[in-house]
Amino acid sequence: MAALIRALHGSVTIVLIDHDIDQVLALSDRITVLHQGRVIAEGAPAEIQKNAEVQTAYLGHLKVAAGADAGLARAEGAPLLGVVSVDAFYGKSHVLHDVSLDVFPGEVVALLGRNGAGKTTTLAAITGVVPPRRGRITYRGRDITGGAPEAIARQGVGLVPQGRRIFPNLSVLENLTIARRGRGGWTLERVFETFPRLHQLRHASGGTLSGGELQLLAIARALMGNVELLLLDEPFEGLAPTIVETVWNVLHALKGETTLLLVEQNADLALALAGRAYVINNGSIVWSGDATTLRAQDDLRRRLLGV
Ligand SMILES: Nc1ncnc2c1ncn2[C@@H]1O[C@H](COP(=O)(O)OP(=O)(O)OP(=O)(O)O)[C@@H](O)[C@H]1O
Ligand SMILES: [Mg+2]
Predict the structure, then answer these.
(1) Which of 119, 175, 177, 288 suits a disulfide with 263, CB 3.0-4.6 Å?
(2) Centroid of chain to Cα 64
(3) What's the pTM value of the predicted model, to 2 decimals?
């Protein structure tokens, strides 16, 4: 879409309505920012970016600008999850090439990459949905390569899938209770304490929830399943700014308690949560290192991710 807008720029007048402020800043000549039904700023992108009220409305970005704390845990000891030289295919199409990454207990690790880079496929290889044709997946030091998805999940690997698949015809409460897997997962009380919005909505059917509410439900549902490693596939995708803040805060609160592998296109939000990061491009890991390094180096980030 961005490429199309750039191509049309100059020949057509375009009115772009979007909640992705980075996208809007990059593409527009003049911007009007609406927040809770009120115009809070108007002007050129450079002025808009400096506007304090706009920054507050987009709290996720404000926190990033303020330098949110780096990941708590360091990469030390034995990895909880090991992805070792993995190649994965869809039929004849070779999608992952020699992908290796580690996640240590207590860490938040970001896996960043553009559209179609291979992020979801990496998670599918870990969860057993797309078994690797070469390489190994280890969990708590044990080889789980080629294991059945259900068996891998039972060991404590939870997934919040891209697009937050939940059961639309079941209520919020039913969606949560059917996710319980064995003992040790979060109780309903704990879920409702952390996600008061879900308590309010507990009798609503899944199909009526907004995008942000669905995302909260998808995360809560994974936590009910006794999760030790939580894999999140683009949790901020398509969310309104105020909801981004809620989801970001929930993930921030999970830090140190649950180990997170966070797959994202939104580098700013992911890097503000993560201690370490990997960048995947065309199915290969092209960069890995401290999240702060990638955050601090605009040129590097732009070269790797185009943002
Ligand atoms: N089921 C499938 N069958 C065939 N090819 C697929 C399938 N799913 C994904 N691909 C291809 O594999 C490559 C990697 O896709 P993947 O979904 O892992 O990317 P991604 O990084 O998650 O992208 P996005 O940010 O758009 O979600 C892409 O070229 C995609 O077209
Ligand atoms: Mg994906």
Answers:
(1) 119
(2) 15
(3) 0.78
Residue 283 Cα: closest atom of ligand 1: 14
Residue identifier of the C-alpha nearest atom 6 of ligand 1: 90
Can you tell me the distance from the alpha carbon of 39 to that of 206, in angstroms, rounded to the nearest whole number?
A: 33
Residue nearest to atom 23 of ligand 1 (CA): 116
Residue that is last in its domain, among 16, 41, 57? 57
Whether 142 maps to a domain, the answer reads yes
pLDDT by residue, tens only, the chain of 307 residues: 666 777 777 777 777 776 666 667 777 888 888 876 778 888 888 777 767 677 666 644 434 433 444 444 456 689 999 999 999 999 999 999 999 999 999 999 999 999 999 999 999 999 999 999 999 999 999 999 999 999 999 999 999 998 878 898 999 999 999 887 767 788 999 999 999 999 999 999 999 998 889 999 999 999 998 899 999 999 999 888 888 988 999 999 999 889 999 999 999 999 999 999 999 999 999 999 999 999 999 899 999 998 7
Q: How far are the Cα atoms of 139, 153, 157, 208 from residue 131, in angstroms, in the given order?
A: 15, 14, 15, 34
- Residues 123, 38 share a domain: no
Q: Which domain holds residue 237?
A: 81-305
Overall number of domains in the chain: 2
Is 68 a member of any domain?
no
21 and 151 part of one domain: no
Whether 98 maps to a domain, the answer reads: yes
Q: Whose CA is nearest to atom 26 of ligand 1?
A: 115
Same domain for 297 and 250:
yes
Three-state DSSP class for residue 43: strand
Question: Is ligand 1 within 6 A of the CB of residue 266?
Answer: no
Q: How far apart are CA 225 and CA 199, in angstroms?
A: 18
How many angstroms separate the alpha carbon of residue 118 from the centre of ligand 1?
6
CB of 161 within 6 A of ligand 1: the answer is no
In whole angstroms, what is the distance from residue 42 CA to residue 45 CA? 9
